[in-house]
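does this look right to u?? iron/sulfur cluster version
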Amino acid sequence: MPNQSTGTEAVLDLPGLQALVDALAATHTVIGPQVSDGAIVLGPLARVDQLPVGMGDDQDAGSYRLRERTDRAVFGYAASAVPAKRWVFPPREPMSRTHDDGTTVSVEPVLARPQRPVALFGVRSCDLAALAVHDRALLARPVPDPWYAQRRAGLFIVVAACTTPARSCFCVSMGTGPAPGAGFDLSLTELVEGEHRFLVTSGSPAGEQLLARLPTRAADTVDRSAADAALRQAAESMTRAMPTDGLAALLLGQPEHPAWAEVAQRCLACGNCTLACPTCFCTSIVETAELGSPVSERARVWDSCFTADFSHMHGGSVRTGISARYRQWMTHKLGAWVEQFGVSGCVGCGRCITWCPVGIDITEQARALARPAGQEPRERKP
Ligand code: SF4
Ligand code: SF4
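got this back:
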């Protein structure tokens, strides 16, 4: 799968990668991959040696393990445990403050502009696709979400194309990877055979300007062929796939399929899948006040369609059972989302599969809905 971008191409070495981080840090808070608590997460990044040098990961249903690689790759793993959404759609977003001075109640909107814009460094093609999904859901509407809009406006995105997908990944079947689509400022494809280097491509005027300031050399056909081969090999090594043909109709048309009850017997309704998912954006509104204080705060906090309270209306929850909550999650993400936003709510990152404590696999659930009731699944290829 060749790189789909058409911008200027050049080659960076490791010191050049540090120059890129330094250039970004001059104007942005740089957020990039690093090892923390036994997983590769995203966090503040200042130096290239903070990256997961020589580390890979083994991910599958309900399982995540770091492993040492035999090379010094810095992007030699699959999707980070933490998706990029928390830097544009944080877990808690203050919305307004109410002040009661005893005679008058006043409400002040809160639109706290981040002190510095954020540069997402080394995020994956699936993360880029997820941002595009959020753009559709939160910006492309009559009244854009102002909190998301202000964080998104200053965002600089450096994508690291994924050359080592995990067993939980299925971005190829969703059309979102491993080569990045549109929307990045710079993309990097790491090449570890021979000279350790990065084919860097600009995807925006801001990316083009930054690239011109970096210590690069011109890309040649060897670099381009190596990058294309790495991405093709990554695509071909992906063993999971979402059966997307007719999926929305299949989901929306079978609310009573026994597969919903079957998955509910395993699902713990823990909500891990929705927290790990880069596109889930369900929230609740909470009001907090301190005793004795005249000020209370209204904030938007992440919620999950797996909690009973999420669908609480007058008289109680409308989704009392786990079956109904799992069905809501999946039919919205892969069915109603397409009707609402013109795009699937799933980008195939596989995080919900990896981080589900009981290993529920959304691609297998889609296949279960396509089978007549009672028919056993066939073995997935190893
Ligand atoms: S539903 Fe699962 S695979 Fe799809 S985007 Fe969300 S976490 Fe990733
Ligand atoms: S599908 Fe898995 S991660 Fe999601 S709520 Fe159920 S048990 Fe938790």
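The chain has twelve helices and 16 strands. idk if thats expected tbh
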